[in-house]
Input
Amino acid sequence: MGQVSITADVWSDQNRQPFLAMTAHWIAKVEGTTSLQLEMALIAFHRLRGRHDGKTLAETVVKLLDRAQITVKVRLLHKAAIMMLVSNVSFKVGHFILDNARNNGTMMQFLETMLGDCDIAFDAVNRKIMCFAHVVDLSS
Output
């Protein structure tokens, strides 16, 4: 709990127009119970313009996280936990599930810096998960 993880993929349509889709995943308490459930929402289906390098992708991802108010909520919850002196609570941007494209690795490095500039702790190496379907596809 306390994390929002992201699944993201970039692809081009038949007209070679590139798109980025991002889905957020989090665990939420079911209202009125002590149960938890996995929630998810499509937060972006975005047409990319310009280069697809890691820096440009990271800038786009941060803008889309901002537009979905994920970065704002993470910062506010983190600051509230500090003000309440709750040291064992962690509110953060969780993991990113991505394919093996080289620009995704570079994007994660830029994302670490950009989120750090927003006072959001993020570890690019330990927060990247390779998409299992892409790994299987590459192995066949």
About this structure: Residues 102-117 form the longest helix (16 residues).
